[in-house]
Amino acid sequence: MQTTTLSRIGLWAAWGFVALVLVFLYAPLIPPAVNSFEGAGGDKGLFVNYAAILTDQRLVAAGRISLTVGLLVALISPLLALLAAEAVRVWRIPKLVLGVLLIPLFVPGISMGVATALFFQTLGIQPSLLTITAVQVIWALPFAFLIILTVMANFDPVYREAAYMSGANRLQAFFEVELPQIHPGILGAAVFSLILSFNETIRTSVVQGGRNTVQTYLWSQYQQVGLSPNLYALMTVLIVATLLLIGALAVMDMRAGRNRG
Amino acid sequence: MPRRWTETLARAAVLGLPLAALFALILGPLAITLVISFWEKTGFSMRPAFSAANYAAFFSGVRLEVLMRSLWVAVSATVIMLLIAYPIAYLVATRVREALVRPVLFLFAVPFLVNYVVRTFAWSDLLSRNGLVNSALVSWGIADAPLDWLLYSDFAVYLGLVTAYMPFMVFPIWLSLSGIDHRLVEASWMLGEGPFTTFRKIVLPLSLPGVIAAAIFGFVGAFGEVAVSLILGGTGYQLLGNAIQSALNVLHYPLAAAISSVSTLLMLALLVAWSRMFDIRLFLGKIMGR
């Protein structure tokens, strides 16, 4: 009796600790939104700092680049991850592929940026949308790869065997039997890659040359002149966009969970 | 027979080429950086050479201090992160219903996914002299005056590092904890061991692959940090990432390459040691579907 009371208190204390940690993790999501309304209100309207973003050509250009690169990363990372996962299955080389593909997780952002910049410079490739996309694809890839590996591992090979028995070749078996089953996972990897593209600042800042994404624009403005209400509005837009994408991811996951059983 | 040949060739092209391109894009930059780290700087450019001058410049004077501080900060921050991430992962693995595991882990994924430079800006705002934390402390009477050591201090840097890298570390630790065969724990109980001994002799050793993987991730992140040190440490607070950044700012690419290579080689050494100690496929058993 006494032990159960004690262990119950211990468990409550443990969950209290988890709640406290979560408060610390979520607290930074709030200040940018608060600061983005500085000087707003009255006859200027509530969203004056948000409106200012749209009239600033540099910000609009940066936003366009962020979106373009994000969509490219969302397209390319899952596709490459899918091919890599298939290669692991066909050639049975999980250790090699995992070992190389997970390296970007463990290289400091600035080091990966410098290395990629020097690599492109050596090949004579000028900084462009392509170099920005490449460095972000490499960053998103380990995550996309792990997600797709998980999804493929949960796919029962019996279905594939059944397809072969009914006379399908490898490609048909993949496109007509396996893909319909694993496509939620691939879509999830795509959304995740888009989120990680929005998350990326430092690597991009080294390889971008004269262009700016929203994220690197914030970073360079901070270093040159400091932050302003407009930039806080921009951060808030970025946070809200990320949260919406995460929400979409959660909804997809719940649906997949219902289909799982 | 010829059909098999074409199929093998087609597969080699469809799977092999993208994979080769990926390997080149990941390993190529790291290799070229290592080569360039031995080159010489000339004015605004560099020229091929084989000189250790960049490493000599890195391992002496102010930069050596930065290296030493980075090592210390990264090691101590990683210990703090593990002390927070492990209990959370343990709770999720042992005390949360199967149906709730994903939602709880999701709670830790959300802040990790929001742009971390933006989150660091937010911390500098919260911790400033007239920020939310100081206002609260003063108005609740906990502090008489705003605290100066909240921002531009070791405290702020550690807070920024821990909140940046710790959430992700919960996942590999949870992965290895949830992969432990429960019969081993039950066997330990049957042999009359209490919860603490069981944890020390069974659970902790078996969860080490995840713990070490998480530790390497946190350590390397903190070691090569740029944003947290600049924004929360204030001017003059440098970690290794800032040393690379300042070498870039004066266009000294070979030096930036040398410092980058040091961090990359350190990371590779840690990863190789990790894969020697543990079977990566055992660790990813859940993911690889075994």
Automatic annotation (TrEMBL), chain A:
Subcellular location: Cell membrane
Record has Transport as a keyword: yes
Alphabetized UniProt keyword annotations: Cell membrane, Membrane, Transmembrane, Transmembrane helix, Transport
Membrane association type: Multi-pass membrane protein
The organism's place on the tree of life at top rank: Bacteria
UniProt GO BP: transmembrane transport
Principal cellular location given in the protein's record: membrane
SUPFAM superfamilies cross-referenced by the UniProt entry: MetI-like
Gene Ontology cellular component annotations, sorted alphabetically: plasma membrane
Alphabetized Pfam families for the sequence: BPD_transp_1 (PF00528)
Similarity comment: family membership: Belongs to the binding-protein-dependent transport system permease family. CysTW subfamily.
Protein's recorded name: ABC transporter permease subunit
Organism from which the protein derives: Futiania mangrovi
Automatic annotation (TrEMBL), chain B:
Keywords for this protein: Cell membrane, Membrane, Transmembrane, Transmembrane helix, Transport
Domain ABC transmembrane type-1: 67-274
InterPro entries referenced in this protein's UniProt entry, alphabetically: MetI-like (IPR000515), MetI-like_sf (IPR035906)
GO biological process, one term: transmembrane transport
Localisation: Cell membrane
Gene3D superfamilies in the cross-refs: MetI-like
A GO-annotated cellular component: plasma membrane
Pfam family of the protein (one): BPD_transp_1
Spans traversing the lipid bilayer: 12-39, 71-93, 100-118, 155-175, 210-233, 253-274
Membrane-related topology note: Multi-pass membrane protein
Superkingdom of the organism of origin: Bacteria
Family in the record: Belongs to the binding-protein-dependent transport system permease family. CysTW subfamily.
Protein name: ABC transporter permease
